[in-house]
């Protein structure tokens, strides 16, 4: 085993395991990050078979709304939307009437489009939060290209979708090996917020979570209801 280099070689009998250095934890900084809404199109949505359809729709919308919640520079892009891929959902477009919307006419990898590259670079941000359809093509190709350009990439694993769980897991593994950080929606929200007392903080974030993460929304509702009701039923007192 050799330390102090980028590769560690572990020997186990007949087997050698080569492992790259672990990616250091990098916090998402709302002042140095941007949001990409990548090919979350109404036609491509139908290829997202690795999620429950209703849950995935909400995941897409939750990803899109991150830019509004945290005032992040946001770039939208579509792939050949005049064909079966279709446009972005109208709700997403309504969120960002003035944001760049790059309608790619043929480029599969969004980074191959000069207008898209220019829009990303114009934000001046080095951390990029991304999700797209499909995970193994649109998300992975762009995430890998961004890593090659030196960007920090945070792939929202709950808002990308593809055809099967096997394909999803293989794509996520490929991205992870390139230093793409695979993150959940809640982890993105909490890292951007940092402190419930901040702005955006509890006042702004709890209604968002109530819409898109009802397990936490109901937790907050239950607490609020208990405080408002002001009673403790038999057996509860000893639990706190």
Structure description:
Keywords: Hydrolase. It is a single chain. With 240 residues, this protein is an alpha/beta fold. It has eight helices and eight strands; from the N terminus they run E-E-E-H-E-H-E-H-E-H-E-H-E-H-H-H. The strands form two sheets. It has a six-stranded parallel sheet with strand order 5-4-3-6-7-8, with helices on both faces. It has a two-stranded antiparallel ribbon with strand order 1-2. Strand 7 (152-156), helix 5 and strand 8 (181-183) form a beta-alpha-beta unit. Helix 1 runs parallel beside helix 6, helix 1 (53-70) runs antiparallel to helix 7 and helix 7 crosses helix 8 (214-229). The longest helix has 18 residues, at 53-70. It is globular. It starts with 6 loop residues before the first strand and ends in an 11-residue tail after the last helix. Residues 1-18 have low confidence and may be disordered.
Q: What are the segments in which pLDDT stays under 50 over at least 5 consecutive residues?
A: 1-18
Order of helices and strands: EEEHEHEHEHEHEHHH
Number of helices: 8
Sequence of strands across the biggest β-sheet: 5-4-3-6-7-8
End-to-end span in angstroms?
50 Å
Describe the main β-sheet briefly.
6 strands, parallel
Rg calculated over all Cα atoms: 20 Å
Give the strand tally. 8
Relative strand content: 15-25%
Helix/strand class? alpha/beta
* Shape by Cα distribution: globular
Mean pLDDT: 91
Fraction in helix: 40-55%
Protein name: Isochorismatase hydrolase
Keywords: Hydrolase
Organism: Lindgomyces ingoldianus
């Amino acid at each position: 085993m050799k330390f102090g280099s980028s590769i560690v070689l572990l020997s186990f009998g007949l087997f050698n395991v080569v492992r790259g250095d672990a990616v250091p934890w990098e916090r998402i900084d709302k002042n140095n990050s941007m949001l990409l809404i990548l090919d979350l199109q109404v036609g491509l949505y139908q290829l997202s078979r690795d999620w429950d359809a209703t849950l995935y729709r909400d995941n897409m919308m939750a990803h899109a709304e991150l830019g509004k919640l945290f005032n992040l520079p946001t770039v939208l892009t579509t792939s050949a939307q005049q064909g079966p891929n279709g446009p972005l959902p109208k709700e997403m477009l309504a969120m960002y009437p003035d944001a760049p919307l790059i309608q790619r006419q043929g480029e599969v990898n969004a980074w191959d489009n000069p207008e898209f590259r220019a829009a990303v670079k114009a934000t001046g941000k080095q951390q990029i939060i991304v999700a797209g359809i499909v995970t193994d093509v649109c998300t992975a190709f762009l995430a890998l290209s961004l890593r090659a350009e030196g960007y920090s990439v945070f792939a929202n694993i709950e808002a990308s979708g593809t055809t099967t769980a096997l394909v999803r897991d293989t794509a996520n593994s490929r991205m992870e090996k390139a230093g793409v950080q695979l993150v959940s929606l809640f982890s993105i929200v909490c890292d951007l917020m940092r402190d419930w007392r901040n702005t955006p903080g509890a006042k702004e974030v709890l209604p968002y979570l109530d819409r898109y993460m009802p397990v936490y929304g109901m937790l907050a509702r239950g607490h609020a209801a208990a405080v408002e009701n002001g009673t403790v039923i038999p057996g509860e007192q000893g639990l706190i």
